[in-house]
Automatic annotation (TrEMBL):
Required cofactor names: FAD
Gene Ontology BP terms: aerobic electron transport chain
Name this polypeptide is given: Pyridine nucleotide-disulfide oxidoreductase family protein
InterPro entries, per the entry: FAD/NAD-bd_sf (IPR036188), FAD/NAD-binding_dom (IPR023753), NADH-Q_oxidoreductase (IPR051169)
Gene3D superfamilies on file: 3.50.50.100
Annotated TM spans: none
SUPFAM superfamilies the UniProt entry points to: FAD/NAD(P)-binding domain
Length: 359
């Protein structure tokens, strides 16, 4: 390693980086000595299983990957810390501990956090759905010490729907409400939306659509000045919002996300890769399934970068099949106009998710 400059710095233990490390293990590729991964959490959490965990259907250790062990097997240093700043021109990063690192190649896979309403003197817990450890910790406390009488889940996408169903399943004394800023499951076929609304009714989850909670004051939820009622706790699952620091770094960004091309490299800084939720690429939604697919190409392209080989191109799949967990062992299928909801689909989802965790 040239003094001080790491050959490769991976930032974030997201889905894509997990796939990269596993691919290198499988193919026997060893990254150059001094390569490192920076992650604040020792675990890589698998998003597909989070609703199942919250529903009480999985144990913690079934839903996460031990990055210390994975890095050790790959011969990569793991630094448990959080990046708080990046100087893209000099490929230098600053960590929360104050430490600095510089990489010949950088790869960002830091995910996203849901956009939050303004919280003015909230007397309730307002929990982001991501990063996962925060929500998981609160949920475990609720189970151990008593849950709030009511919880409002904010958001109307697949994650918000699944979390509302999961909380209802695992917190029997709590009344769960779902407040969606758009119509429920916007972008899914109306048949899927109808089925999802029916399931919420069946499980007595109150649904409010086309209302965007902009403010939490005390226990009260507001859309601007219009009251949307009160709640004892709130879980924010409003989709992917970009972290601020990557775009303050000099990288070209689009709506806060790092603009990349099909090689998964920044369009402005060619020694920097970005993948998963933190990246912006046309026709590529911010979802775990896309991050996983990008991981396969990223593994090859990082290796090509380190060995001066040629890069592969990532082509997003035109349409992804979605299996939404409904907290009861069943799953709701959404694939264009096709929909179904049953236990067999639940078992299929369990199988796919477990297969990912087991590598
Ligand atoms: C409840 C829920 C369920 C979901 N279910 C699904 C699903 O079934 N299918 C699907 O396709 N999508 C699902 N999603 C969306 C999915 O979570 C994201 O699209 C996916 O996690 C993105 O993966 P990623 O690889 O970009 O990063 P992530 O998996 O989000 O990981 C980011 C990593 O970066 C680390 N990190 C963050 N900031 C820093 C920093 N400053 N420095 C260093 N490291 C940092 C984090 O600790 C984490 O390890 C779900 C989302 C939620 C909230």
């Amino acid at each position: 390693m040239k003094s001080g400059v790491r050959p490769l710095v991976l930032i974030g233990a997201g889905h894509a980086h997990v796939v990269v490390l596993r691919s290198w293990l499988r193919t026997g590729f060893r990254p150059p000595e001094g390569s490192m991964l920076i992650t604040p959490d020792r675990y890589g959490w698998y998003s597909g299983m989070m609703p199942g965990l919250i529903a009480g259907r999985y144990r913690l250790d079934q839903c996460r990957i031990d990055m210390i062990e994975l890095c050790e097997r790959c011969g990569i240093d793991l630094i448990q810390d959080r990046v708080r700043g990046l100087d893209a021109d000099n490929q230098q990063i600053t960590l929360e501990s104050g430490r600095h690192e510089q990489g010949r190649w950088l790869s960002l896979n830091v995910g996203s956090a849901p956009p939050s309403p303004d919280i003015n003197a909230a007397s309730i817990e307002v929990l982001p759905a991501k990063p996962f450890p925060i929500l998981v910790e609160a949920w475990r406390r609720w189970r151990a010490e008593g849950a709030p009488p009511s919880v409002a889940v904010l958001g109307g996408g697949a994650a918000a729907f699944e979390l509302a169903m999961a909380l209802q399943a695992s917190l029997p004394g709590t009344s769960v409400r779902l407040i969606s800023g758009s119509e429920l499951l916007h972008g899914h076929h109306p048949r899927v939306q109808r089925k999802a609304r029916g399931l919420l009714r069946e499980y007595r989850i109150d649904l409010t659509e086309n209302r965007h909670v902009t403010r939490v004051q005390g226990k009260a939820l507001y859309e601007d000045d219009t009251s949307l009622g009160v709640t004892d706790a709130s879980v924010v699952a409003t989709g992917a919002g970009a972290y601020a620091w990557p775009c303050k770094s000099g990288l070209a960004c689009e709506e806060g996300f790092i603009s990349i091309d099909a090689t998964l490299r920044s369009i402005s800084h060619r020694n920097l890769f970005a993948s998963g939720d933190c990246a912006a690429l046309p026709a590529t939604p911010h979802a775990g399934v896309y991050a996983v697919r990008q991981g396969e190409i990223l593994a090859d392209n990082l290796r090509a970068a380190l060995l001066r080989g040629s890069m592969k191109l990532y082509h997003p799949q035109p349409r992804a099949l979605a299996l939404l967990a409904t907290g009861d062992g069943r799953a709701l299928l959404s694939y264009g106009p096709l929909t179904a909801h049953n236990r067999l689909l639940g078992r299929w989802k369990d199988h796919l998710d477990t297969r990912f965790i087991e590598g």
